[in-house]
From TrEMBL:
Coiled-coil residue windows: none
Protein name as annotated: CHAD domain-containing protein
Composition skew (Basic and acidic residues), residue ranges: 210-222
Domain CHAD, first and last residues per copy: 39-312
Source organism per UniProt: Paraburkholderia fungorum
Ranges for region Disordered: 201-222
InterPro entries assigned to the protein according to its UniProt record, in alphabetical order: CHAD_dom (IPR007899), CHAD_dom_sf (IPR038186)
Length: 312
């Protein structure tokens, strides 16, 4: 198993049964908007959209095998999130079982990449607390050690998962399935329908969160996840949708920033509470948690206001 502080399973391949070919993926640039617009079939657009995201994930994984760049771990996690959204979009043709297996594996790999990123966020927040006068150096030292261990664990898991072969296999499997069932289906109506469904989910979750007083953390988290999915789909399908989607993406990004700031605080508080710090005095831990609790309340209010505005 992965470090108990991070809660990620070591055996990343146990649920995946697709073959692992040795063919190496070429790192491709993201296709131009006109390329997607000129590709009319559902099957063809999947390849155009998935290939550059997979290439980005492969590139990040290769780089992280040699160095522990915080941004690299973040970009790897984002790539897997985008793939989850893309597989959800094409799930009517990929099938529920294939989609569920792929999405679960993407989620696991994103969690592996996110372990280091989570400790980086904790460290940044505690640095801000120190600037405000808190005396947290013993905890900062412990967090740096946790981060170093997370790097080692993440790198080991990334290597053992053979991300490049795995991603090549899932791409090949999806391409084969889509070519067999929807190689001649037009993309525009399909894209609009999937974006509309994702938008409806976001609206429902936003209204549910807006009804609560005070807003529950779980409701804000659900809004954040739904917002990410919709934003990624708008980015993927923008070339075949109307011009207003650019404004939608900008508005969603603004709301997501507020929700992300709240999530960073909430996740960091949870991570500190669930971790063991044998060498850190109880008073230091308590001071850090008190500071985080105050910041969480402030950021939760800000996030809730944005969600209520969006739900109107």
């Amino acid at each position: 198993m992965f470090s108990s502080d991070l809660g990620v399973e070591m055996d990343l391949d146990s649920d995946w049964r697709l073959p692992r070919p040795n063919t190496r993926l070429k790192v491709l640039r993201r296709p131009a908007a006109s390329s997607l617009a000129e590709t009319e079939s559902v099957a063809g657009t999947f390849s155009l959209l998935a290939t550059p995201v997979i290439a980005e994930a492969v590139q990040s994984a290769r780089a992280l095998s040699a160095k522990s760049d915080a941004e690299g771990f973040h970009q790897l996690r984002v790539a897997f999130r985008k793939l989850r959204a893309l597989y959800w979009a094409y799930s009517p043709y990929l099938g529920a079982e294939v989609t569920a297996e792929a999405v679960e594996e993407f989620r696991r790999l994103a969690a592996v990449a996110g372990g280091t990123r989570d400790w980086d966020i904790v460290g940044d927040l505690l640095s801000a607390a120190q600037e405000s006068g808190a005396s947290l150096e013993p905890l900062m030292d412990a967090v740096r050690q946790k981060r170093a261990q997370a790097v080692a664990d993440s790198q080991a898991l990334i290597k053992s998962a053979d991300i490049e072969a795995f991603l090549h296999a899932v791409l090949l499997g999806a391409q084969t399935t889509l070519q067999s069932c929807c190689s001649d289906l037009p993309i525009r109506a399909f894209a609009k329908k999937r974006v509309r469904l994702a938008r409806r989910t976001l609206q429902k979750r936003s209204k549910r969160a807006a009804r609560g007083e005070p807003t529950h953390e779980e409701d804000l988290h659900d809004v954040r996840k739904a917002g990410k999915k919709l934003r990624y789909l708008l980015e993927f399908f923008q070339p075949v949708l109307n011009d207003s989607r650019g404004r939608d993406i900008k508005a969603l990004t603004s709301v997501q920033n507020k929700l992300g700031q709240f999530n960073d605080i909430a996740a960091s508080e949870s991570l500190i509470r669930s971790s063991t710090f044998n060498e850190v005095p109880a008073g230091v831990l308590q001071e850090s948690l008190q500071w985080l609790a105050k910041q969480k309340c402030r950021r939760m209010r800000a996030a809730s206001r944005r969600v209520r505005a969006m739900a109107r």
